[in-house]
Amino acid sequence: MVSAAVLAVAGVVFLNNQHQQRLQAEARVQAAQDQANRESMQRMEGELTLKNELESASQREAALQLQLREMDAGASRLQAADGQQQARRLQAEQDLQELRTQRAKLEKQVDCERIQLTVNQLGAKGDTDQALKLQTLWAVPCPNLQAVS
User: Considering the entire predicted model, what is its pTM?
Assistant: First the structure.
């Protein structure tokens, strides 16, 4: 009679432990998914910021190109190149080249952020093989990719 009660209590304790372990595992999975979602949101916000910077750089580039065309038109009409105008033109050309370089870097950064976001999403879904393949494929152009946890 006592041994049956002991067995019943042991069975309840065992089932309770299993239930607790399952709840803890589910909580860990949910926490990992929540973290991946937070990181995803942060990366999307970062990507939006980079896109805005890229758009701003494109607008400045267009303004500088217009300025160069206006300078060319003015030089054609005057048939004389003023020293100050040549210096401004050279500076505008340098600024334009610098903006193009900056835009190319921003475009690469946006691409790398998108790849990192995809790697994180795949990792959060448990598709670590696909995430590692993608990470390996983009390791050279995006050396700062973070590993799937």
Answer: 0.51
